[in-house]
Amino acid sequence: MEKLQGEIPQIRFPEFKELWEHKKLSELLSEAKKRNEDLKYSKDEVLSVSGELGIVNQIEHLGRSYAGVSVHQYHIVETGDIVYTKSPLKANPFGIIKLNKGKAGIVSTLYAVYKVNQKTAYGPFIDYYFSLDANTNRYLRPLVKKGAKNDMKINNAYVLHDRIFIPTIPEQIRISSFYSVLDKKITQLKQKKTLLEQYKKGVMQKLFSQELRFKDENGKEFRRWEEKMFGECFISLPSKKHQIKTTEFQSDGKYKVIDQGQEIIAGFSDEEPLLFTNIPIVVFGDHTTILKYIDFEFIVGADGTKLLKNKEGSNLKYLFYNLTHNNVKQEGYKRHFSALNDVLIQIPSLPEQTKITNFLSAIDQKINHCQQQIEKTEH
Predict the structure, then answer these.
(1) Model confidence at 249, in pLDDT bands (50, 70, 90)?
(2) pLDDT of 334 higher than 50
(3) Which positions ≥6 away from 337 have C-beta within 8 Å?
(4) What is the CA angle 301-256-90, rounded to 5?
(5) What 3-state DSSP class applies to 365?
(6) Cα–Cα distance between 96 and 131 in angstroms, integer?
(7) What are φ and ψ of residue 162, in 5° steps?
(8) CA angle (222, 223, 227) in 5-degree steps
């Protein structure tokens, strides 16, 4: 959903022609003041509000209850209510606004709870509207005063004081239905990606423990694996500075740059000295060693970068998979790069290394494709 700042949105469904109205939030919501005085809801039914997950059971989300000694003054949150969280988040320094799509429960008095006016608003539309950080921050910024401890100084009723642009109920429902379909697709893609990642982890465990072995083209067993130190399998290439022209790559004068493990697109002058390579594996080492496999041409933008090349009999990407399986990528060695030289790894024959690499690369391609689909759908 784009930032909505006018009576006619830039993109809309063609069957709707009416102008969007600039309404006070108090016309769309009203404060819900019902408390848990009869203790209808217990500490097991306390809700938390997450920027990513929305309104969820606190124990299920955080693993324990953070409720006070008594919950009799907690606000009751019915299904379909809107909750404003008066706690700053990194992307939302003035708090977040979410719809309760799940079971009824209670929230602490630090939250504000609102009922949706069914004649003017559709709850899921309000939820999608405030799912945009830009919309939430723009709306709350003029209203919220922050205390010395970064706490929110705002009355529950005053939260409804400002205005948003909003269409008719039918268009609100149409927009919400569209985003609901997208959300479902994103959820399915994320689940698929998670399953692929779990599958890859399990397969790597079996491959590098030799529980799972490949056979050669004739169906015969490959030779036994050898144990070698990582330093026996590669050579470290010297990085040389080169004078190169910006026109040698992308037409917009930009280059792919690898700097501290991150891919950056950047532009440079013709005279600027750069480190250029198309070697596919890079090690960044200052306080922590980080491995990253790069399979495109790139410029090195970090002085601590080391470029690796495999020795005869070693597949460079196999070495990368083997090391990452042993948590070198995730944990690092937190000391000089030379510490990697003494890491012991199991080395099969080069044909088996290639089969392992191709198999894991195919899984990686599926994982990357899922991630690209997620990003495309989200944006």
Answers:
(1) very low
(2) no
(3) 283, 285, 289, 306
(4) 80
(5) helix
(6) 8
(7) -95, -175
(8) 125
Q: Which token pair is 317?
A: 């990407």
Minimum mean pLDDT range among 83-97, 169-183, 254-268, 313-327: 254-268
Residue type, 254: K
* DSSP strand pairing (111-116 vs 82-85): antiparallel
What does DSSP assign to residue 243? -
Q: How far apart are CA 370 and CA 265, in angstroms?
A: 23
- Residue 24's nearest CA partner among 122, 121, 92, 145 is 121
Q: What is the DSSP letter of 184?
A: H
Q: How far apart are CA 94 and CA 91, in angstroms?
A: 9
- Residues 61-87 have a mean pLDDT of 93
Distances from the Cα of 30 to the Cαs of 76, 115, 132, 144, 146, in angstroms?
Answer: 14, 5, 22, 18, 23
Residues 284 and 260 sit within 8 Å (Cβ to Cβ): yes
The strand pairing partners of 47, in sequence order, are: 57
Structure tokens at 262: 């991150």
Q: Which residue has the tokens 């819900």?
A: 32
| Cα 94 to Cα 181: distance, rounded to the nearest angstrom | 29
Handedness of CA 322, 327, 328, 333 (dihedral sign): negative
Closest CA to 47 of 114, 106, 123: 106
Look at residues 140, 75, 129 and name the one whose alpha carbon lies nearest to residue 98: 129
How many whole angstroms from its chain centre is CA 358? 27
Among 254, 262, 297, residue whose Cα is nearest residue 278: 297
Name 215's bridge partners.
Answer: 221
Packing angle, helices 350-378 and 316-325, rounded to 10: 70
Residue pLDDT, tens place only, 117-144? 999 999 999 999 999 999 999 999 999 9
Contact 68, 53 (CB under 8 A): no
Check residue 1 and report its DSSP letter. Answer: -
- Contact 117/29 with Cβ under 8 angstroms? yes
Supply 291's token pair: 């491995």
